[in-house]
Amino acid sequence: MPVGVHIARTVKSEILAWARQAEGREIGGLLLGRVRGDGERALVRVEAALLARGADSVGSSIRFTPELMAELSARGKKKYPAFRIVGWFHTHKGLGAFLSGYDTAVHKEHFPEPWQVALVLDTELEREALYVRQGTEMVPVHPYASGSLDSAPSMPGTACTRYRLARPGRLFGVLLVVTLALAVALAGRAWWTRRHVPGAEVQTPVPAQSTARGTVPAAGEAADEAPSDNSSSAGQEQGAPPGQRYIIRPGDTLWGISERFYGDGSFYSEISRLNRLSNPRLLYPGDEIILPEKETKTEASSQ
Fold first, then answer.
1. Cα–Cα dist 6/160, whole Å
2. Beta-strand relationship, 137-140 and 245-247
3. What dotted CATH number matches 209-302?
4. Mean pLDDT score of the chain
5. Spelled out in words, what is the top-level CATH class assigned to the domain 4-146?
6. pTM assigned to the model
C-alpha cells in the first residue's frame, strides 16, 4: 500500500457537485494526479477527477467497461497530460462508505498498480472511505474510512496527509554552503576594489607632527582654524623671520600665504623658488615649507 495519499479539496468539492446534479443517482469516474516513488513506497497526490458520463450502474456501484475506461483515459490524457490515473471514485446514497465485492473486482481488473486507490463517498450520510491495496486485498485506511466528510482526522496514510521534506538536513547544508560562498565572494570583491579602484582606499588619519613651531594638528583636526593675529600682523609688517617654517593647511595657496606674511601676493615666486616647488599651484595639507626673508624680494627687485 502507498505510504501517503493526499486528495485535493477541489477534487472532493467537484465530486460532490456532480453528485448533487445527478439527483440521487450513483456516479463514478477516474482520479488523476501524480505519483512519487513506486510500489509500497509511493506517495500519491490526487489533483483532478473525471466524471464517467452516462455510465451504467450495478446496484450501488458503476459499471466500468473496457470501452468506458478507454474513453476516460483518452479524455484524461487530453485534459490533464501531466497527470496519471491514480485510482477511481464512486458514490453511495444512504448505504455507507464501503467497497462491495463488485467494486473490488472492478479495482483489481482496471486499476492493477499497487499505488492506485479507490474513493467511496456517501453523499447522504456524509461519509467517505479511502481504500488502498494491501497484498491481494483492498483495505480501508482507518479511522478515515468511518470519518465524516468535513471532519476526517489527519493521520499518516489518509487523504489529509501532506508531503514533507524527506531530508531536511541536506537542505540546511546546501543553504549553509551557499551563505559561506556569498560571504567569501563579497570579501574578495571588497579586497579587489581596495587594490584596483582609484579612490577606494581607506583613508588613514595623518598623525600630529612635532615642528619648530610646536605640534602640527593632524589633517582635518584644525583645518578650519585661522592663523593667530600675532603671526599674521607680524608677517605683514616685518616679513617672516629667517628660517620660519609654515605648515600647509587645506585651502592654502602660495599667493595667499605671501599676502598674509608679506603683504604682497606676488612674493609667492620667492617662496616657490626657495622650497623648490615643481608646481606652485599644487600644495598638500600637512606639508612644511620655509618662508624666505622679506628683504630677498627687495634685493631681487633692485637688481
1. 6
2. unpaired
3. 3.10.350.10
4. 74
5. alpha beta
6. 0.47
